[in-house]
Amino acid sequence: MTRSPKASGPRSFVARRLLLGVAQTVAVVLLVFALTEALPGDAAVALAGDQPDPARIAAIREAMDLDRPAYARLADWAAGLPHGDLGTSLTSGRPVSGYLADGSGPTLLLACLTLALLVPLGLGLGVLAARHEGRFVDRLVSSVTLAVYAVPEFALGVLLVTVVALELAWLPPTAVGYGTDLLAHPAALVLPVLVLLARPVCSLSRLVRAGMADALASPYAAHARRCGVSGARVRYGHALPNALAPAVQQLARTADWLLCGVVVVEALFVIPGLGTVLLNAVAERDVPVVQGLAVVFGVLTVLLNLGADLVAHRLTPRGEVAA
User: Rounded to two decimals, what is the model's pTM?
Assistant: First the structure.
């Protein structure tokens, strides 16, 4: 029995994206190892002290397997990754997975709080602007979101700390002294979440507004109105779904950024998350920690974008999402 193209199309798309995800994961592993190998300096020299003895440096290199060929170390390291073995820290001797466990709590908390606020705010502002396209509300929302988006996270964070924390003393300026249990100190989370939320809300709302405005101006929306379909049903039953596919992909990129790229915000507010762990590892030239975190970040990026493409393909079955 011949299978119809309509039935096989979605499955072939999923298969292609899964194969591409596997290839991207392998490429991430190879690229991370190559880049960390190219880092300047020598971990053995750094660990040997200010006045290193050549014999001590040689002993450290041998103890850490740094004297082995790069391809042999790559093979051993890659073989442990599927089992969750990300290596061992050169400076502390702890497993890299321990560093990941220590820093994941604050980073995940910030990411979840930001996404929980981002979805209703971004969709709400986008729908509001699209409903009033060309009028005062639309111009106001577009102008404010464009202005806020133009401010870098670091500059916005410094401004909020200076005004809200130091001048007005409403909130703590940093998370110093609170450890990793930030949920017990919600006041320390307000400013970091505001900084993380600012630009994604602007980009998501503008994306939803553009998608809904295009759909509302399309011939099928005009035909639905002529047939007596209510304005609310046209907006939320026909126009809004057309804006959801690109919005889902934007949310995936935002989640990827929140989990893998909040180094600036964590450093500014002294939050002991994954970004801070990565910065400390780079400063100490702790290559296994850098490699382990970079691989985790890379795999998260692949998985999030894979999931977003599959959801977007499901929302727009007649379109083809770029692989």
Answer: 0.75
